[in-house]
Design a protein that fits this description.
Number of helices: 10
Strand content: 15-25%
Structural class: alpha/beta
Number of domains: 2
Radius of gyration: 19 Å
CATH architecture of the largest domain: 3-Layer(aba) Sandwich
Distance between the termini: 51 Å
Length: 306
């Protein structure tokens, strides 16, 4: 069995190209650009790479970017005040809280402070409720993660059959992190068809390998790089790797004075060759499409404000 490694650059490029062309057209029509603010922290893992990457990509698409990089030791009250300022700023249409946060901050409290109309990833509790129960209120922005999965599966013709079993493997700390726990559960309750089976398993569970061996779709969210062993897996499983781990930094080939990150997910792509039917890897894979949809939602927030 040949394993398909899915890094759908065509889909990502199409979404980003559509966003850029629409921003260009709207700027001509309204003499105004959509505004997006990034709240980030340089001292967290990958922070020094993620913040400039998000800012650079947003600027290349035509957004008016607000760099709201904060001190790692900022207290909650000061961060709340900063978020309140961004909420009130009519030039800002989308606010993105880059993860992870410094350990003393409680992620679900911080995301809850953001105006739901400007929180475009689908992480705000009110937005998650709209995702789960659309009958209650209109879902202004589709939650990025399940939307990305749907679009990737569609573009790559990945079949999902009746009674397929989905297993979500999470680190123990992600169960206690209310935001990660809520986001993961909400996203995959939305993404997994009603006629499929969904299990969420703690990485420390004694039954972990048993669950992995049954999975038709294995979703891996772990801070342990390349943790999943190929002998745990069912032949033909589709693997969705989500969490990016910085394993080391090496000098750039083009500029030896500049370091570049080496990133790995919870699954070693080479180790699952000829076992998995497909893998959405780290880096790339699902998360690159999630980012593209985030910018599409940010543009939609701007359009709604006009």
């Amino acid at each position: 069995m040949e394993t398909k490694t899915i890094k759908d650059s065509l889909l990502k490029d199409k979404i980003l190209s559509d966003v850029k062309s629409k921003i260009t057209r709207l700027k001509v029509e309204h003499n105004k650009k959509p505004g997006i603010a990034f709240i980030g922290f340089m001292g967290v893992p990958l922070g020094k790479y993620n913040i400039p990457f998000h800012i650079g990509l947003a600027e290349s698409l035509g957004f008016n970017v607000f760099d709201e990089t904060q001190d790692d030791d900022i207290d909650e009250a000061d961060l709340f005040n900063k978020i309140d300022e961004l909420n009130k700023n009519d030039e800002i249409h989308a606010i993105v809280l880059l993860q992870p946060l410094p350990g003393h901050l409680i992620p679900v409290r911080i995301i809850n402070r953001i105006d739901p109309a400007k929180e475009v990833e689908g992480f705000h509790p009110k937005n998650m409720m709209k995702t789960l129960m659309p009958e209650i209120a209109e879902d202004a922005y589709p939650m990025c993660l399940p939307t990305a999965l749907y679009e990737l599966f569609k573009s790559n013709e990945i079949p999902v059959k009746k009674d397929d079993e989905w297993v979500l493997l999470l680190d123990e700390e992600f169960f206690s992190n209310q935001l990660v726990n809520m986001v993961t559960r909400t996203a995959f309750i939305k993404a997994v068809p009603d006629n499929n089976i969904l299990s969420i398993v703690n990485r420390k569970s004694e039954k972990l390998q048993n669950y992995c061996s049954r999975a038709d779709f294995l979703v891996v969210v772990t801070k342990e790089p390349e943790y999943v062993r190929p002998e745990w897996l069912k032949k033909g499983v589709c693997i969705i790797d989500i969490y990016s781990n910085l394993v080391k930094e090496i000098p750039s080939k083009n500029d030896p004075n500049r370091l570049v990150p080496i990133i790995r997910g919870g699954v070693d792509v080479e180790s699952v060759q000829n076992i998995a039917s497909a893998i959405l890897p780290i880096p790339g894979g699902l998360m690159s499409i999630v980012l593209a949809i985030l910018f599409r939602n940010a543009l939609h927030a701007y359009v709604r404000s006009l």
